[in-house]
Structure formats: C-alpha cells, structure tokens
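Let's sit down with a protein and look at its sequence and fold side by side. Once you have written the record down, we can walk along the chain together.
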Amino acid sequence: MWTIVGLGNPGGEYDNTRHNIGRDLLRAIAKGEGVKEWKEDTKTHAQLARGVLFGKKVTLVLPDTYMNNSGKALTTLVKSKKDAESLVVVHDELDMPLGKIKFSVGSSAGGHRGVDSIQKALKTKEFVRIRIGISPSTSSGRLRKPESHDTVDFVLGTFKPGEQEKLKKVKKLLAEALELLITEGLDHATMVIHTKQ
C-alpha cells in the first residue's frame, strides 16, 4: 500500500501559498477521485485519509506539524526502510519553475526543511519525492528565483492571478504522475512525466 504525503503548513492562513502546493494539490486530487474522508489523527499529528486512489489502496497524509517537523507525522506510519519504498512525498521546489514537476529518489533535501525532517526521522533518503516547481520563469523558460533574503516571504506568499492557469496544468500533471506511479511503477512514471515537459 502506498503512503502519499502532501507537505505544507496546517491552518487556513497557509492555504494556497507556494510552500503548501504539495498539501493543497494532494487534497484537491483526492477529492476529485472521491477520497474525501479526512480524519485528524493525534497519534501521527496529521490528517489521514485511507481509501482507493486510481484503483489502488492508499493512505494519504497531510501533516499537522509545521513544515520543519514533517517527519514527526510519519514515524508511526513508516516503520522500516521497506515501508519507505512505498512512501511518496509531494512538495514545493524553489529550484524549478511553476509548471514543472519531477520525480526523485535518494537525493539530498536540497535545503527543503520538510524533506530534511522526514529524512532524519525515517533515517533514509530512499523514498519517492515528487517535486513541484513554484518559482516564476521568463518567457523563454529561464528560472527567476527570488533573492535569498526574500525567500521566506516568497514561499509563504500566495500565487498571483496570472499563475492560476499554470496551477491547473500542474494539478492535472501531478494526478497523472501519481496514477502512473502507483499503477505502473516509478520507472515508467518517470519516463512519461519527464518526457512530456
């Protein structure tokens, strides 16, 4: 059974912010696929939904810890390195433009504190990550990351009205990525998703 985690911060004030794109999109995709029963789980400090996504049994997780402590929500759900092999973490990626998503496994957290917290809590990097770009880009597709001193304000800021169309495409692409991953496997999902962007 796959465990799929959408990273973000709990609380309505963080909804629709760039840092919450993993949490927000996973919840939206689950709703679209008929998985609507989220339950607050005090043991894991998370919102959990168990159900069928794209024909496969899944546990969906939205940590209620803040981003920096995301690993706390997973220690009771992912108890071994074997369990980690069927873990998927969906999160924002500052080093990629909005509109792009990418699979990765076994790589460093790259400064993402939510991912870093999970890697430390589970004592492994060997789980699937789906990185969702959140940075603006030029018309030629070149990345325009915020200045380092503006990063916190940027990731905690909301998307601009002109970015909403890209967000719809990202949601569709993420849904396809998740479906391919849990039905066809990582290699096939990576080939299809990375090729079409």
Observations:
- The chain has a mean pLDDT of 95.
- The CA atoms of residues 176 and 193 lie 8 Å apart.
- The longest strand covers residues 87-97.
